[in-house]
Amino acid sequence: MAQDTYTKNLLVSEINQVQAPYVVSDYIIFTAEDSARHVGIAFDFE
């Protein structure tokens, strides 16, 4: 669990700007403007 927490913290610390979602290893990274009060993510499966 400690390794997983370290990995998440490392990924978050590397975010420099808002950008389109991207995949890193087993994670999908979503970003939003810091002024956003609420953010939603929807997935569409056929």
Strand order of the largest sheet: 1-2
Strand content: 5-15%
Largest sheet: 2 strands, antiparallel
The 3D shape can be described as globular
Mean pLDDT: 90
- Rounded to the nearest angstrom, the distance between the terminal CA atoms is 34 Å
The residue fraction in helices comes out at 25-40%
Sequence of secondary-structure elements:
HEE
Which stretches of 5+ consecutive residues score pLDDT under 50?
none
The number of distinct β-strands equals 2
Using only C-alpha atoms, the radius of gyration works out to 13 Å
* Total count of helical runs of at least 4 residues: 1
SSE-based structural type = alpha+beta
Report on this structure.
This protein is of the alpha+beta class. It is built from 1 helix and 2 strands; from the N terminus they run αββ. Strands 1-2 form a two-stranded antiparallel ribbon. The longest helix is centred in the first third of the chain and has 12 residues, at 2-13.
